[in-house]
Write a structure and sequence with these properties.
Pfam families: Ham1p_like. One of its GO terms (molecular function) is UTP diphosphatase activity. It catalyses: ITP + H2O = IMP + diphosphate + H(+); dITP + H2O = dIMP + diphosphate + H(+); XTP + H2O = XMP + diphosphate + H(+). It is a single chain. This protein is an alpha/beta fold and 198 residues long. The protein has one domain: Maf protein, CATH 3.90.950.10. It contains 5 helices and 7 strands. Strands 1, 2, 3, 4, 5, 6 and 7 form a 7-stranded mixed sheet that branches. Helix 1 links the parallel strand 1 and strand 2. Helix 1 packs across helix 5 and helix 4 crosses helix 5. The chain is globular. It binds the ligand O=c1[nH]c(=O)c2ncn([C@@H]3O[C@H](COP(=O)(O)OP(=O)(O)OP(=O)(O)O)[C@@H](O)[C@H]3O)c2[nH]1 and magnesium ion.
Length: 198
């Protein structure tokens, strides 16, 4: 029977993407069964994305039965002109000023470059924590496309043929997104570990 892995997140858009990213290739037997729990986890206020993800998964571990394999992810949007801010704080900026407010933050700057970073922290069934990170470079632009997911409408990735994430098909975003890069590393780890159990 496939082992279970829990993804702790309260973000339905992340869940949708991660389910696509971790889906087994056609004809392949799934190596694990992915389930989701929405716990309210405290998020460390720290400039280290790795520390934030490690702290987040440690809390998730404490809430689950010992031996449960679990992962979390934290996603940051880092402005070049702000030396990496808002970074992991982007969630709170979005809540207070929306995508337009994020665009306005860069109004006085010629440099609109931004980096999207997803940091995955996976605690295996022995309680050992593994961290994986994916990055995508791009720039901040006036909102274009669907407003469904966070800052997707203002992030134009360098490899996106001039489209914002929000203007792209999900499968195309998944080819180049910071999340897909981080989860490709987790997948590789899980596939390597599948013989010994997760
Ligand atoms: O346009 C976007 N494209 C993305 O690919 C993306 N990934 C995350 N986000 C947003 O950035 C903040 C991260 O904060 P975050 O990592 O703490 O997430 P969260 O609190 O929503 O969920 P979780 O912590 O329960 O998993 C939240 O506002 C998310 O909505 C994204 N926005
Ligand atoms: Mg969060």
């Amino acid at each position: 029977m496939a082992s279970k892995i829990v993804f702790v997140t309260g973000n339905v858009n992340k869940l949708k993407e991660v389910r696509m990213l971790l889906a087994p290739a056609e004809g392949q037997v799934p190596a694990f069964e992915l389930t989701n729990i929405d716990f309210d986890l405290d998020e460390l206020q720290d400039s280290s994305l790795e520390n934030i993800a490690r702290h987040k998964v440690s809390q998730a571990q404490e809430k689950l039965a010992k031996g449960t394999a679990v992962f979390v992810e934290d996603t940051a949007l880092c402005f070049d002109s702000y030396n990496g801010l808002p970074g992991a704080y982007v969630k709170w900026f979005l809540k207070s000023v929306g995508p337009e407010g994020l665009v306005r933050m860069l109004a006085g700057f010629d440099n609109k470059k931004a980096e999207a970073v997803t940091t995955v922290a996976f605690a295996d069934s022995n309680g050992q924590i593994h961290v994986f990170q994916g990055k995508t470079q791009g720039k901040v632009v006036d909102p274009r496309g669907s407003r469904e997911f966070g800052w997707d409408c203002i992030f134009e990735p360098e490899e996106g043929a001039g489209k914002t994430y929000a203007e792209m098909e999900k499968k195309d975003k998944n080819q180049i997104s910071q999340r897909s890069r981080a989860f490709a590393l987790l997948s590789k780890h899980l596939n390597g570990a599948s013989n010994s159990g997760v």
